């Protein structure tokens, strides 16, 4: 079936029509803008003036999404019958209407499994036989916020100050949230039932919480407070030593996301110095990377 959507009627005709019936028939939105997250569901709602004892058998509803460049058919009801054939395939199987609501003058359209590209202006045009009008609302779908660390290890020499990178994407203000940095490979002491894994750095209520901080990191760690509103939760560790080697985990327990944590590996080389008395009394030192990264052994030998 090939339908000519009645929205193709030039807009000025609709406006004239609206003017003509002004006061007697109104299409309205219950909310002019909606915000939602990717993968969630949302119900967009329009209302229109009803007359008592009217059936929906002559009701026509045509809704589109307009993102400023293009439009897609979102929902089409013709003489009370849904035409899913008309619906754009990007919406197929994702739009559910509330048939009972139609009788009461409510168009409730649930859009499920939201995608960021569902963002835009949703416009519904309604023709009841006794009135005609349209209205629109805006939907903004934001992508799921993910915690991102680093695939590459952070290579350093003893005594260096290092930054373990970790941030949220898209940008997300974490100033009011709890941020935990820990070493996931450290297990609680099995002989001490009360012992708990301690933190490298714990941030809560907008400040560092030194309780339960590993003694070896005392006064050596800091977050970039000013950048946390942009989702930067990188950790600075001062004066690293070989004992700091290993995997670090940044974690935001309350983040509404499937990815609340990321891991960053820190590799601190071993510094070996010798004094070559036969040439001079100069001490020469090398940093070797033995542990965990055989590939780096040859690549990252550096003369200090
Ligand atoms: C979204 O809607 C779908 C289909 O209607 C349903 O299966 C799913 O549970 C809903 N999800 C949420 C988060 O409400
Ligand atoms: C986070 O802040 C640190 C320190 O200013 C900077 O080096 C790093 O590049 C920032 N990370 C991001 C993702 O902006
Ligand atoms: C850096 O740490 C080493 C031990 O790993 C310590 O001997 C030295 O004093 C520290 N340096 C500074 C500037 O704190």
TrEMBL record:
Annotated ranges, domain Ig-like: 159-260
GO process terms (BP): regulation of leukocyte cell-cell adhesion; regulation of T cell activation
InterPro entries per UniProt: Ig-like_dom, Ig-like_dom_sf, Ig-like_fold, Ig_sub, Ig_sub2, Ig_V-set, IgSF_BTN/MOG
Superkingdom, taxonomy of origin: Eukaryota
Compartment(s) of residence: Membrane
Pfam family, one: V-set
One cellular-component annotation, GO: membrane
Keyword Signal tagged: yes
Major localisation: membrane
Keywords, sorted A to Z: Disulfide bond, Glycoprotein, Immunoglobulin domain, Membrane, Signal
Signal sequence segment: 1-23
PANTHER family from the UniProt entry: BUTYROPHILIN, ICOS LIGAND
Protein name per its UniProtKB record: Ig-like domain-containing protein
Origin species: Astatotilapia calliptera
């Amino acid at each position: 079936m090939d339908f000519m959507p009645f929205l193709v009627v030039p807009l000025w005709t609709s406006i004239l029509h609206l003017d003509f019936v002004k006061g007697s028939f109104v299409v309205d939105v219950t909310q002019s803008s909606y915000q939602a997250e990717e993968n969630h569901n949302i119900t967009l709602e329009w209302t229109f003036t009803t007359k008592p004892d009217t059936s929906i058998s002559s009701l026509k509803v045509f809704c589109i999404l307009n993102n400023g460049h293009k439009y897609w058919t979102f929902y089409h009801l013709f003489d009370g019958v849904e035409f899913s054939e008309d619906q754009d395939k990007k919406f197929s199987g994702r739009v559910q209407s509330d048939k009972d609501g139609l009788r009461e003058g409510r168009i409730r359209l649930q859009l499920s499994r939201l995608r960021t590209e569902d963002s835009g202006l949703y416009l519904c045009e309604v023709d009841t036989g006794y009135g005609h009008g349209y209205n629109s609302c805006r939907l903004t779908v934001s992508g799921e916020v993910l915690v991102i660390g680093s695939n590459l290890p952070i290579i350093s020499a003893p005594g260096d100050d290092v930054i373990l990178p970790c941030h949220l994407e898209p940008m997300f203000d974490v100033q009011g949230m709890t941020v935990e940095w820990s070493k996931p490979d450290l297990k609680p002491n099995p002989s001490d039932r009360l012992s708990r894994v301690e933190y490298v750095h714990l941030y809560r209520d907008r400040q560092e919480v030194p309780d339960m901080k590993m003694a070896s990191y005392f006064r050596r760690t800091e977050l970039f407070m000013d950048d946390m509103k942009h989702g930067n939760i990188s950790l600075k560790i001062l004066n690293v030593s070989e004992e700091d080697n290993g995997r670090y985990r940044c974690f935001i327990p309350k983040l509404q996301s499937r990815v609340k944590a990321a891991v960053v590996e820190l590799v601190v080389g071993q510094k070996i110095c010798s004094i070559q008395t036969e040439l001079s009394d100069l001490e020469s030192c090398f940093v070797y990377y033995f542990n965990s990264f055989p590939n780096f052994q040859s690549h990252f030998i550096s003369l200090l």
